[in-house]
Amino acid sequence: MSNQYHPGQTAQAIPLQPKPAHEYRKIWRKIRDNGYDVIPLRGRDGPFRGWPKQPNDDESIERWSGKTAGIRMFGSSCFIIDLDVRDLDVRQALMRCLAQRWPDFMAQCLRRTSGSTTLALIGQCATARKRRWTARFKSKEDKPHLVEYFTGNDKRYVAVHGYHSPGRIYGYQGRSILEAPLESLPWFPEIDIPSMIGECEQVMVKLGLEQIKTEHAHLPGDRVYDLKPDDVMVLSDGEHIKLSELEKRAGVTRIKGYANIWDKASKTRDRVLVNHSGGAGLTLWDTKTGVSHRWESLSPAEDPELQKQLRELMADVKHPWEGGR
Is residue 110 helix, strand or coil? Predict the structure, then answer.
């Protein structure tokens, strides 16, 4: 099957007909046998508990449920460029740029869709880098335009086949992951990763898109201690609840919600996952930024007395660049 990209091509929103359980197991096994670290997903609702260490041997797959296949990135050679762009003109411009700059990669990479105009380009790369992204640019919709990449150093999963949500499926333009062993995918030049991010940003700048400036920039994996008991979070079903009450539910049932506490403009109802993390108590994980929000009261505070002692100690230190006394 041709992997040629057509600028106006999008995946169709086809209602997914339920398959017998053995059909899903066949898909999961095929993806695993193609060299990917497969796991089951519940569509956009994400993976099952314990997914980072979930075995995927035949015996385990026989017990799986779900309608979707995902792959674990960590420890693999997978490299994914995610074009989270819903405007067709912007997406076309980005694809033209990537095809011109890295034609070999673009000719053979997988193009996974999610029933919309977004694209995930799947190939391989040997790198020590972790997930990074472009600046965010304003779009006509609620979600901004963004290009990011994932590597085998990221402890993340990526959905690759099956059910996304009602009326939407994960599909492919050209050959699919069922037809393409991991070892057959093209390699992206590791040295060009920063250039790829920079050139995608330049494309959006040249299109006249306005960059969204953020007051605080946090990296994925950061812990931000900004939650207060009286803060009110809006859950995915519209319920408003104080965090002091939400903590009692955390870890008992699967809860999602809006990022209204730290991002007033966000309108994505399932952006935040509610968790309970041992001694840390309530934690709110922002799936958009990869940042974990925790109780403000648990912020690592500096000990005033210790800081005073350190200052006094440093006052007596003779540095190499200082002259003798």
Answer: strand
- Structure tokens of 226? 């900004």
Q: Is 21-206 assigned to CATH 2.170.130? A: no
pLDDT of residue 79: 97
What is the domain partition of the chain in residue ranges?
Answer: 21-206, 223-298
Amino acid 17: pLDDT: 56
- What's the CA gap between 287 and 273, in Å, rounded? 7
Q: b vs e for 21-45, b when ≥16 Cβ sit within 10 Å of the residue's Cβ?
A: eeebbebbbbbbebbbbbbbbebee
**Structure confidence at residue 221 (pLDDT):** 67
E strands, the chain, are: 38-41, 68-72, 78-84, 110-113, 119-124, 132-133, 146-150, 157-165, 168-172, 223-227, 232-234, 240-242, 255-257, 272-276, 282-286, 291-295
Question: In angstroms, rounded to a whole number, what is the distance separating the alpha carbons of residues 138 and 144?
Answer: 5
How do beta strands 240-242 and 232-234 pair? antiparallel
In the chain (325 residues long), the average pLDDT of successive 10-residue segments reads 40 49 89 96 84 94 92 96 90 94 96 85 95 86 85 92 86 93 96 94 92 65 85 92 90 86 85 83 85 85 52 50 40
Q: What is the pLDDT of residue 133?
A: 87
Pairing state of beta strands 272-276 and 78-84? Answer: unpaired
Q: What are phi and psi of 81, to 5 degrees?
A: -100, 115
Structure tokens at 32: 């695993």
Which own/partner contact pairs does 249-254 have at CB distance under 8 Å and 24+ positions apart?
A: 249/274, 250/274, 250/275, 250/276, 250/281, 250/282, 250/283, 251/275, 251/276, 254/45
Distance CA 324, CA 319 (A): 10
pTM of the entire predicted model: 0.68
Specify the residue for token string 């009261």: 297
The partner residues of 251 in beta bridges, in order of sequence, read none
CA-atom Rg of the chain in angstroms: 23
pLDDT at 207 (0 to 100): 92
